[in-house]
Amino acid sequence: MPGAAEPRGSRARRFLFLQGPLSPLYRRIGARLAEADHQVTRVNFCVGDWLHWHGRECRFWRGRLADWPAEAARLMEEGGVTDLVLHGDTRPYHRPAVLAAEARGINVHVSELGLVRPGYMTLARGGLGVLSRLPDDPAIIRRVAARLTDPDLSPRYPGSFALEAWQDVSYHLPNVAGFAVHPFYRRHTPSHPLVDYLSWIRRLAGEGRRKREAARIEAELLAGDAPLFLLPLQVEGDYQILAHSHFGTMRAALGHVIAAFRGGAPKEARLVVKAHPLDNGEVDWRAEIARHAGGDAERMVFLDGGSLAALFPRLSGLVTVNSTAGLDALRAGVPVAVLTPALYDMAGLTHRGPLERFWQAPQPPDPALLADFLKVVVASSQLRGSIHNREGLDEAVETMTARLLDETVPDPDWHAEAPPRLARARAMGVPL
After folding, report:
1. Per-residue pLDDT for 1 more than 70?
2. Same domain (yes/no): 141, 98
3. Cα–Cα distance between 382 and 68 in angstroms, integer?
4. Considering the entire predicted model, what is its pTM?
5. InterPro entries annotated for this entry (predicted)?
6. Which residues constitute the domain of residue 23?
7. Cα-atom radius of gyration of the chain, to the nearest Å?
8. Contact 1, 410 (CB under 8 A)
9. List of E strands, 285-427
10. Mean pLDDT of the chain
């Protein structure tokens, strides 16, 4: 890894895996680690976990969530755990385990979908988002980037909706059927699976009409000349909203943005609210927009489909809670205002000051700083591969296993001991 200090030396390590992505990824990584003579333990919390990974190295936890922190600590101490591996660091079973690991000096490795996808997975030491150890000081970013080469950001491994849907259904439906096996299990998804799937059936039934309407609205927006500001919605119940922001719901964030837009944007400007591609239609976003817009409804546009990238050349700015869409917009040169401390939220890249001022004088990102930031992010946490593409999965197993086996100690110049965004986030009310 870049800027590495002294290696710790080869030693047998003990990896504790918790919930992974809906994919064979963790099972295959675990097998590779075991082949390298390291000890691997996996905790399953539900039938879906068991279906993705079962074997002699696995154990089932059927207790109550309130008892899990003590059990996690016991597993770490009695098992001599050296490394904790999990997908997302703020799920109900993951946050207590991370805190227990940190208290014992255990390495924490957190995976997630890539920040610069398609074609990358995230594997970060310590945490993600607000909990990331990546510096938020532009001077440090520039200094570290000077030692790195430009990353290959070409897209690879396009995702398959059919594969992604099958992975989701094959995980969640067995949990419904196997409730008696894990009666105290607390799922990390906001909706009951049956409610979610029924919502998707209704949504897919109207897909053709939605696509036609989105194409019409997008064409009108691209042909117009009014200043456009975009709010890309995030999935209601996503932990980026629940845990890494102070809003708690995307609906609350929407209300906040609309109020700021009504109070400070030029009268000729329009706010485009774009649905998330994985929105299941459970929330009536048109009604939510109308509820907050009041007498300014004609200044708001709801776009349920279309291409985010196609809109970038027309945008005066983009507002987001903490979505990766903000990083995509920065890469397209679009000014971005972030409502909570996202990984890419720093002076020179994103708007500083109240949101009310953003509408009047949006400032584009510094291209040189953005290039340096991408160098550091990719080198520190982005690995080639994908869980939504079969070839991508093979590469993700290779790259992520290699990173887990890399025992070089991160240079503190670019890997902070404490999350540098956390104090700022807590001052906003982020519940971490």
Report:
1. no
2. yes
3. 30
4. 0.92
5. Capsule_polysaccharide_synth
6. 14-159+382-428
7. 22
8. yes
9. 300-303, 315-320, 336-338, 382-384
10. 92
User: CB–CB of 193/176 below 8 Å?
Assistant: yes
Convert the pLDDT of each residue in 216-241 to its tens digit: 999 999 999 999 999 999 999 888 99
**Among 254, 293, 260, 221, which residue's Cα sits nearest to residue 359?**
260
DSSP 145-212: HTTSPPP-----S---HHHHHHHHHHHHHHHHHTGGGSTT---SSSS-HHHHHHHHHHHHHTHHHHHH
End-to-end CA distance of the chain: 28
Average pLDDT over residues 289-318: 96
Residue 172 located in a structural domain: no
Q: Does residue 325 share a domain with residue 284?
A: yes
Q: What is the pLDDT of residue 27?
A: 98
- Please confirm whether the linkage preceding 354 is cis (ω < 30° from 0): no
What pLDDT digit, counting tens, does each position of 126-171 carry? 999 999 999 999 999 999 999 999 999 999 999 887 888 888 888 8
State both tokens at 374. Answer: 């991408």
The answer to the question of residue 67 being in a domain is: yes
- Mapped onto helix, strand or coil, the DSSP state of residue 64 is coil
- 223 lies in some domain: yes
